[in-house]
Design a protein that fits this description.
- By secondary structure, the protein is an alpha+beta fold.
- 35% of the residues lie in helices and 17% in strands.
- The protein has 2 helices and 2 strands.
- The longest helix is centred in the last third of the chain and has 23 residues, at 80-102.
- The protein is flat, with a radius of gyration of 16 Å.
Length: 103
């Protein structure tokens, strides 16, 4: 967060980091697919965010990618299989949400 915070107070501002928001703000959020990478400096925050959403009753699916960095999506030639896995998971998730809403 140091790269995007203008001041130390930004680090505790719920508008800057939704994980800091009151738990009630997560109720009623749409289904969420989290794609989290092992070598991401925001990995722990992403996992904690998923837990908060689940506690609020939000449908959460998490794809955890071992040995992968934060920006893998921008390097499909280097992370070919990882990108393929994440693209397929995203399509499957969107289709499952559409199916659930049409039932």
């Amino acid at each position: 967060m140091g790269n995007v915070c203008r001041s130390p107070s930004d680090r505790i501002d719920p508008y800057g980091s939704c994980i800091l928001r009151d738990q009630t703000k997560f109720i009623g959020q749409p289904p969420c697919l989290l794609i989290i990478t092992e070598c991401d400096p925001l990995r722990d925050e992403g996992l904690a965010y998923g837990k908060k959403l689940k506690v609020a009753g939000v449908r959460v699916e998490t794809l955890f990618l071992k040995g992968t960095i934060h920006a893998f999506f921008h390097m499909p030639a280097f992370f070919k299989e990882t990108c393929k896995t994440s693209y397929n998971k995203t399509v499957d998730f969107i289709n499952s949400v559409r199916q659930q809403r049409s039932d």
